[in-house]
Structures are given as C-alpha cells and as structure tokens.
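Table S2 (text version). Query chain:
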Amino acid sequence: MYGEKKEWGCKWFQLWREHITKAISLDQRLQVFYFEGLVGKGKIEPTSTMTAWEACREDAMQRDKLYGMKRDFIRALVPREKARLDRMSNEARDDSMGETPGSERSDEEERLFVCALQEDDRCFYERHRGLGNSQKAEVAWLEEMGYDYEEVDVRCFVSASSYS
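Corresponding structure-token output:
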C-alpha cells in the first residue's frame, strides 16, 4: 500500500482491519476524523484505471517524494532565510492542519515550500490535506470494501471530550 515495505505498516494495518471487521459485525458506526475544517478532503482519488485503494501505492510514493523535496528545500535555504526562521517560535500548537502540531516556524516553512513547488506538485500536495497518511489508506480500504462511514471534524471530538 505504500509502494515499499515499511517496518511499521503491515502488522498495524492487519490489526486495524480486524478491528474494522469486528466493528462491522457488531453493527457499529464507523467514523473517520479529519483535521480541523477539512472534512471530506485528503482522500486518495481513484483514477480512470484504478480504485482509490489500488492507487494507494502511487499516491504514497508521490507524497514521499514531496516530503523529501521539502526536507531538501528547508536545508537549502539561504542563510538569511534560515536566520529569519530561527527567530520564529517552535512552540507546538494544537490547531495544526497536519499530522503533527504546528508552530509559527513550521507554518512558515510549509508556506515557503508550497510557494516553491511547480503547479502540479503544489496541487497534489494541497489536495492531500485533511487526513493523515495512514488514514488515506484506511479510507481507501473502507471504500474498497463498501463500508459506510461518518466523516467528522476532529474539533467536534476534541471539544466534546475536553468537557467530559
């Protein structure tokens, strides 16, 4: 599903599928949680020849390529730009739209990288916001199996759970 063998992927996915199968057998309602304000976004899109599940491999390989490009881009910034970034806060916030908490610095690094991308890479990168990388494959598999699920904004869950 990731285009290459990952140490952390195979056993996790097997266990996750077993939990989903059990939930379905118990008539449980499945929920997919999206990053704040991005419900319905970030799914792997089917192509004319592949379902979303079949497209997981190519999608993951493209995302990995872009993450590598981002790492290299940040490393290659000119000293003046690095110094400006160094003055920004790295303090994590919980309002991030990514998989990890955002910060002033990470937001600016993201902005700079996205602006530097070619149009097709930028569109691909921005289209993938909404779900974590593993969630993309999970949702594609749910759809491949024909399982219904509810799409939920993570803030609904965070807000409700913080008051219990």
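Notes on Table S2: The longest strand covers residues 31-34. The radius of gyration is 18 Å.
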